[in-house]
Design brief:
By secondary structure, the chain is of the alpha+beta class. It has one domain. The protein is built from three helices and five strands; from the N terminus they run αβββββαα. It has a five-stranded antiparallel beta sheet.
Length: 134
């Protein structure tokens, strides 16, 4: 799957154009992630909170068993994707927070592997598709 690279580390603060591109691109990548994880339609929500002018806001994929949020909250560390387990789409606190690099949005299969490892989501689906391919 060929994906155009995006400058995830370019700040969205006080830059409306960059913020719009960041949200649009992140939503698109999270949709690709949902497809890569074989999440059934209706089993997840995709939300975008643009927040105020001085911050990036966040884009969230909230599945019945996984909460994945993209933002620029960890720019100094390079981390900007939060992954944790949850118990339904009303659970906003979930399990332990795990962070991975924003750049993983440019490698959806690797991001999906991280989500599977942390949450166990779609592990059965990926195993069955690997068996079919064999």
């Amino acid at each position: 799957m060929e994906i155009d690279m995006f400058d995830w580390k370019r700040s969205c603060s006080y830059d409306e154009q960059q913020k719009r591109r960041f949200h649009t691109t992140a939503r698109s990548r999270l949709k690709k992630l949902a497809a890569e994880l074989a999440l059934p339609q209706g089993s997840f929500d995709l939300r975008s909170n643009r927040a105020g002018i001085a911050v990036c806001g966040e884009i969230t994929l909230h599945h019945d068993r996984a909460y994945i949020q993209v933002g620029q909250f960890g720019l100094s560390s390079g981390h900007g994707i939060l992954i944790r387990t949850c118990k339904g789409r009303k659970d906003y606190t979930g399990g332990v927070n795990h962070f991975v690099a924003l750049g993983m949005l440019d490698d959806i299969p690797a991001l999906a592997a991280a989500v599977r490892a942390i949450t166990g989501v779609a592990r059965d689906a990926s195993c069955s598709s690997e068996r079919r391919a064999a």
